[in-house]
Design goal:
The chain has helices at 12-21, 27-40, 46-55, 60-68, 79-86. By secondary structure, it is mainly α. The chain has a single domain (12-86), classed as Orthogonal Bundle (DNA polymerase, domain 1), CATH 1.10.150.
Length: 94
């Protein structure tokens, strides 16, 4: 799946986030990130991109466990951003 890109130009931070989000080591996490990028990238400000980039520093195994509720995230993880990503863990069926 190739995510739909926004029509307008992207900021350098949006580009950095997109690059890191779409090149994950686990296919499951990459699919979640593809859906998130397609839907949310254009609305991300620089501060949000910075926080999401910090979240992407964690392993894909940890991210998947946190997004699916298998394990709780550590206190250092921004729960608001994790919850924002969690909404994209399932594909929308039409």
């Amino acid at each position: 799946m190739i995510p739909q890109m926004p029509d307008g130009p992207l900021s350098p931070k949006q580009k950095a986030f997109m690059f890191r989000a779409l090149r994950r080591s686990m296919a499951e996490v990459e699919r979640i990130m593809q859906r998130f990028v397609s839907s949310e990238l254009a609305s991300l400000d620089d501060d949000t991109c910075d926080r999401l980039l910090v979240l992407l520093d964690h392993s894909d195994a940890d991210l998947l466990d946190w997004l699916t509720g298998v394990k709780p995230p550590p206190a250092s993880v921004n729960r608001e951003d994790l919850e924002r990503l969690r909404c994209f863990k399932r594909e929308v069926k039409s």
